[in-house]
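Note to self: keep these together.
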Amino acid sequence: MYIREAKDSKLNQVLYVERLAFGQDEEAELVRELLIDPSAKPILSLLAFKEDVAVGHILFTTAHLENSENTTKIALLAPLAVIPDAQNQGIGGKLIKRGLETLSESGVDLVFVLGYPEYYSKHGFKPAGCLGFEASYPIASEHSDAWMVQALRPDVIGSVSGKVICADAINKPKYWQE
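Structure:
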Protein backbone atom coordinates (compact mmCIF):
# COMPACT_ATOMS: atom_id res chain seq x y z
CA MET A 1 0.00 0.00 0.00
CA TYR A 2 1.16 3.53 -0.71
CA ILE A 3 -0.24 7.00 -0.05
CA ARG A 4 0.01 10.04 -2.23
CA GLU A 5 -1.50 13.48 -2.38
CA ALA A 6 -4.73 13.56 -4.36
CA LYS A 7 -4.37 16.20 -7.04
CA ASP A 8 -7.29 17.48 -9.14
CA SER A 9 -6.63 14.76 -11.70
CA LYS A 10 -7.52 12.15 -9.05
CA LEU A 11 -11.01 13.53 -8.34
CA ASN A 12 -12.79 10.52 -9.86
CA GLN A 13 -10.76 8.14 -7.68
CA VAL A 14 -11.49 10.23 -4.58
CA LEU A 15 -15.22 10.24 -5.28
CA TYR A 16 -15.14 6.49 -6.06
CA VAL A 17 -13.64 5.76 -2.62
CA GLU A 18 -16.11 8.06 -0.86
CA ARG A 19 -19.13 6.48 -2.58
CA LEU A 20 -18.01 2.92 -1.89
CA ALA A 21 -17.00 3.60 1.69
CA PHE A 22 -20.24 5.31 2.67
CA GLY A 23 -22.61 3.54 0.29
CA GLN A 24 -24.15 6.82 -0.82
CA ASP A 25 -23.39 10.04 -2.66
CA GLU A 26 -23.71 12.47 0.29
CA GLU A 27 -20.08 12.20 1.47
CA ALA A 28 -18.78 12.27 -2.09
CA GLU A 29 -20.74 15.45 -2.79
CA LEU A 30 -19.46 17.03 0.43
CA VAL A 31 -15.89 16.23 -0.64
CA ARG A 32 -16.53 17.69 -4.09
CA GLU A 33 -17.87 20.89 -2.49
CA LEU A 34 -14.97 21.12 -0.04
CA LEU A 35 -12.39 20.71 -2.79
CA ILE A 36 -13.71 23.80 -4.59
CA ASP A 37 -14.62 25.83 -1.48
CA PRO A 38 -12.18 28.78 -1.14
CA SER A 39 -12.83 28.91 2.62
CA ALA A 40 -11.51 25.32 2.93
CA LYS A 41 -8.07 26.22 1.59
CA PRO A 42 -5.41 25.18 2.07
CA ILE A 43 -6.48 21.55 2.01
CA LEU A 44 -4.69 18.25 2.30
CA SER A 45 -6.28 15.42 0.34
CA LEU A 46 -4.58 12.01 0.44
CA LEU A 47 -5.38 8.77 -1.39
CA ALA A 48 -4.25 5.30 -0.33
CA PHE A 49 -3.62 2.75 -3.07
CA LYS A 50 -3.26 -1.00 -3.08
CA GLU A 51 -1.39 -1.75 -6.26
CA ASP A 52 -2.98 0.88 -8.52
CA VAL A 53 -6.46 0.81 -7.02
CA ALA A 54 -7.61 3.64 -4.73
CA VAL A 55 -8.80 2.11 -1.45
CA GLY A 56 -8.79 5.02 1.01
CA HIS A 57 -9.11 8.78 1.17
CA ILE A 58 -8.70 11.43 3.85
CA LEU A 59 -9.41 15.15 3.61
CA PHE A 60 -8.24 17.95 5.89
CA THR A 61 -9.59 21.47 5.42
CA THR A 62 -8.81 24.79 7.08
CA ALA A 63 -10.77 25.98 10.10
CA HIS A 64 -10.37 28.83 12.59
CA LEU A 65 -11.45 29.94 16.03
CA GLU A 66 -14.40 32.33 16.06
CA ASN A 67 -13.58 35.90 17.07
CA SER A 68 -9.95 35.01 17.48
CA GLU A 69 -7.05 37.16 16.45
CA ASN A 70 -4.43 34.58 17.38
CA THR A 71 -2.32 32.84 14.80
CA THR A 72 -3.27 29.28 15.72
CA LYS A 73 -3.50 27.20 12.55
CA ILE A 74 -6.37 24.72 12.62
CA ALA A 75 -7.52 21.90 10.33
CA LEU A 76 -10.62 19.72 10.29
CA LEU A 77 -10.38 16.03 9.35
CA ALA A 78 -13.50 15.16 7.37
CA PRO A 79 -14.05 12.71 5.93
CA LEU A 80 -11.94 9.58 6.27
CA ALA A 81 -13.05 6.81 3.93
CA VAL A 82 -11.84 3.28 3.23
CA ILE A 83 -13.64 1.02 0.75
CA PRO A 84 -15.35 -1.99 2.39
CA ASP A 85 -12.98 -4.62 0.95
CA ALA A 86 -9.98 -2.80 2.44
CA GLN A 87 -11.36 -1.97 5.89
CA ASN A 88 -9.80 -3.31 9.10
CA GLN A 89 -6.36 -3.43 7.50
CA GLY A 90 -4.89 -0.28 9.07
CA ILE A 91 -5.37 1.91 5.99
CA GLY A 92 -7.39 4.57 7.82
CA GLY A 93 -4.77 4.79 10.55
CA LYS A 94 -1.98 5.15 8.00
CA LEU A 95 -3.90 7.94 6.24
CA ILE A 96 -4.41 9.73 9.57
CA LYS A 97 -0.73 9.36 10.49
CA ARG A 98 0.52 10.64 7.13
CA GLY A 99 -1.96 13.51 7.19
CA LEU A 100 -1.01 14.61 10.71
CA GLU A 101 2.71 14.43 9.85
CA THR A 102 2.19 16.54 6.72
CA LEU A 103 0.05 19.08 8.57
CA SER A 104 2.57 19.32 11.39
CA GLU A 105 5.35 20.00 8.87
CA SER A 106 3.24 22.77 7.33
CA GLY A 107 2.74 24.50 10.70
CA VAL A 108 -0.78 23.38 11.66
CA ASP A 109 -1.28 23.51 15.44
CA LEU A 110 -4.59 21.70 16.03
CA VAL A 111 -6.63 19.12 14.13
CA PHE A 112 -10.30 18.50 14.92
CA VAL A 113 -12.60 15.65 13.95
CA LEU A 114 -16.21 14.69 14.59
CA GLY A 115 -16.10 10.91 14.61
CA TYR A 116 -16.11 7.67 16.55
CA PRO A 117 -14.26 8.26 19.84
CA GLU A 118 -13.20 4.61 20.10
CA TYR A 119 -11.46 4.84 16.74
CA TYR A 120 -9.97 8.33 16.79
CA SER A 121 -8.69 8.07 20.36
CA LYS A 122 -6.40 5.27 19.14
CA HIS A 123 -4.83 7.87 16.86
CA GLY A 124 -4.18 10.50 19.53
CA PHE A 125 -7.43 12.48 19.46
CA LYS A 126 -9.07 13.61 22.72
CA PRO A 127 -12.53 15.00 23.47
CA ALA A 128 -12.39 18.69 22.52
CA GLY A 129 -15.34 20.11 24.43
CA CYS A 130 -13.80 19.56 27.85
CA LEU A 131 -10.61 21.23 26.57
CA GLY A 132 -12.43 24.46 25.73
CA PHE A 133 -13.25 23.91 22.04
CA GLU A 134 -16.85 24.24 20.92
CA ALA A 135 -18.00 22.62 17.67
CA SER A 136 -19.48 24.72 14.86
CA TYR A 137 -22.94 23.47 15.81
CA PRO A 138 -24.22 21.98 19.06
CA ILE A 139 -23.58 18.27 19.46
CA ALA A 140 -26.02 16.18 21.50
CA SER A 141 -24.64 15.46 24.96
CA GLU A 142 -24.68 11.69 24.37
CA HIS A 143 -22.29 12.27 21.43
CA SER A 144 -20.15 15.03 22.95
CA ASP A 145 -17.04 12.80 23.07
CA ALA A 146 -17.23 12.50 19.27
CA TRP A 147 -15.99 16.10 18.92
CA MET A 148 -12.24 15.55 19.24
CA VAL A 149 -8.92 17.38 18.89
CA GLN A 150 -5.25 16.56 18.54
CA ALA A 151 -2.48 19.07 19.17
CA LEU A 152 0.40 18.98 16.71
CA ARG A 153 2.42 21.50 18.75
CA PRO A 154 3.17 21.39 22.47
CA ASP A 155 1.34 23.78 24.80
CA VAL A 156 -1.32 24.82 22.26
CA ILE A 157 -4.16 23.23 24.20
CA GLY A 158 -4.73 25.42 27.21
CA SER A 159 -3.41 28.54 25.53
CA VAL A 160 -6.34 28.90 23.10
CA SER A 161 -10.03 27.98 23.18
CA GLY A 162 -13.31 28.88 21.55
CA LYS A 163 -15.76 27.91 18.87
CA VAL A 164 -14.25 26.23 15.81
CA ILE A 165 -15.55 27.58 12.51
CA CYS A 166 -15.09 25.27 9.55
CA ALA A 167 -15.16 25.78 5.79
CA ASP A 168 -18.45 27.03 4.38
CA ALA A 169 -19.27 23.73 2.63
CA ILE A 170 -19.25 21.76 5.90
CA ASN A 171 -20.44 24.56 8.16
CA LYS A 172 -24.06 23.39 7.99
CA PRO A 173 -26.17 21.84 10.77
CA LYS A 174 -26.80 18.58 8.86
CA TYR A 175 -23.11 17.64 9.12
CA TRP A 176 -23.04 18.10 12.89
CA GLN A 177 -26.06 16.02 13.92
CA GLU A 178 -26.07 12.28 14.51
